[in-house]
Amino acid sequence: MRRWIRTWGLFAFLLSASLILAFASRGSRAQEQPPSPLVTGTIQDSQDQPVEGATVQLGAEAEGEALAEAVTQSNGRYALPAPQDLPDNLFVQISRAHFEEDVVALSAADIQNLRNGESVVVGITTLPRRITPAFWIAALIFVAMLVLIATGTLHNTLAALLGASLVFFVSYLGEPLMEDLFIFGFDRALQYVDWNVIFLIMGMMIVIAVVERTGIFQWLAYMAYRLSGGRLWLLLPILMIVTGVASALLDNVTTMLLMTPITIQISLALGINPLALLMPEVMASNVVGISTLIGTPTNILIGSFADISFNDFLVNLTPGVVLAMIGLVLYSEFVYRKEILAPGKGEISPLLLEKLEERAQITQPGHLRKAAVVGTGMILLFVFGERIHLLPAVTAIMGATALLVWIRPDIEEMIEAVDWTTLVFFITLFIVVGGIQEVGLISLVATGIGDLVGENLILAMFVVTWFSAVLSTVIANIPFTAAMLPVVGYLTATIPGAGNKVLFYCLSVGSAMGGNGSLIGASANMVTAGIAERAGQPITYLYFIKKGFPALILTVALAMVWLLIRFLVLAG
């Protein structure tokens, strides 16, 4: 036994010693050979934005064989190791799909510095865009997707999925026929998908799936009626406030999904047109939802792209939201005055009241208490998590997991409660929007708006806000916002004084409140209309425009007043 130990011990010692000597000799050789000098530089586009994924080659001739090759990083930078035997002429060749190729010749002094072991900085190289057939195809696919969504010809998710599939079809099957048909590959497409948005939505969906099963929303709607005492002029603002606050803490789509059925029941029991309550509710959800990061899908997109936190939205937008909400309540009271002030309205029989009360019970009080604890913790992390660089998506996933572990519901039922259709919509939407960004359409739009507003911050605020608000009436605000984010990012970087991200808040106000202008403007509108139609209370496209577009003008104008005060008066 001792002999076996001595033998294997000696073997282990010799092996360890040989490894140490090998690494030591490698280290000494590395010290003997100095690192190769580098040729470095930065590639950017005509908007001074870094160009990622450009191929950079170091060659002895302008079109010759490459001596070294690199790919630019997300900041547009590259580093090429210089070969030991340097020729008398050196060229840096730059190529990237959808950009003009460029060749930069190194000077004799640069080549001499490389021979002396010194690195050379080429500097910034600007690549102009190319308008290729891929540009027009990607633009056509994007517009076609918007038309399919706006007209309802295809489901939103199917329209986005079709658009993404066409982008890949053209890129992979069209490129062998014509190189300029290539838009981008699958790996590049995935870089445009904002996974922070995807996981944030998924986590919140799980939390909401637990909360909605407790009956809290039905209870809140019923208590709103009890609090109003049957006075419809008071019931209307109470329901709007309940809907708005719920939309800010959850999201407006889910809130309307839960509030619409009980609102219809209350309306029919009171003998009034359900649309007199549903329309103000859905408009309130679109208005108040923008006060938090998680209140609307558009805010989730904006917050992730511009690195705007939960607390930032709350502080910078809430006063404007309150102002717009006051205007919306007064507008709703005026528009539906015949319904809510008509004699005999608001009276309800004891039997109907009893049935409403039965349907508005807290079915799982224990789960509700646990959800309240976890929800409070999530809100705190949303507000203060930015101090430790905690992403909202991580908070949502941790909160959902904690709730599932604590309550132990049927996990398969909870996973099925996640709206995977919506998640697929966002993923494929990011890909289609990434396609028009890749080919340069977004850059073209950004340049056009930039030329229009120049360096005038006030004009830029008005243009972004009202442009977003009006277009959100004809284009669903989620794909519109996704397409506008790079445009606003460019304006923020080029307009003096826009570094406080005011233009992103303008986009938030315009896209979300602009959703009140038409039935297709926001997802919450379509969800509400779908439930109302199944209940025999359809909301037509023209009816929504007639009631919603004046509300759009009023609420956006009031919110715009606050944005001007907050970022121009108070900031000064």
From the structure above, extract its key features.
572 residues, alpha+beta, Immunoglobulin-like, four-stranded antiparallel sheet, three-stranded mixed sheet, 24 helices, 7 strands, elongated
Tally of helical segments: 24
- The Rg value, from CA coordinates, equals 30 Å
In the CATH hierarchy, what is the architecture of the domain at 38-127 at level 2?
A: Sandwich
Q: Major sheet: size, sense and barrel closure?
A: 4 strands, antiparallel
Q: Kindly name the structural category.
A: alpha+beta
Would you count the extended β strands for me?
7
- Helix % is 55-70%
CATH T-level fold name of the domain at 38-127:
Immunoglobulin-like
* CATH top level class name of the domain at 38-127: Mainly Beta
Q: What would the principal axes of the Cα set say about the shape?
A: elongated
State the fourth-level CATH superfamily of the domain at 38-127.
Immunoglobulins
What does the average pLDDT come to?
A: 83
**Low-confidence residue ranges:** 27-32
Walk me through what this model shows.
The protein is an alpha+beta fold. The protein has a domain at 38-127: Immunoglobulins (Immunoglobulin-like), CATH 2.60.40.10. The protein is built from 24 helices and seven strands. Strands 3-2-5-6 form a four-stranded antiparallel beta sheet, with no helix packed on it. A three-stranded mixed beta sheet has the order 4-1-7. A hairpin with a 6-residue loop joins strand 5 and strand 6. Helix 6 (195-212) packs antiparallel against helix 18 (420-439) and helix 10 runs antiparallel to helix 12. The longest helix is centred in the N-terminal third of the chain and has 31 residues, at 2-32.
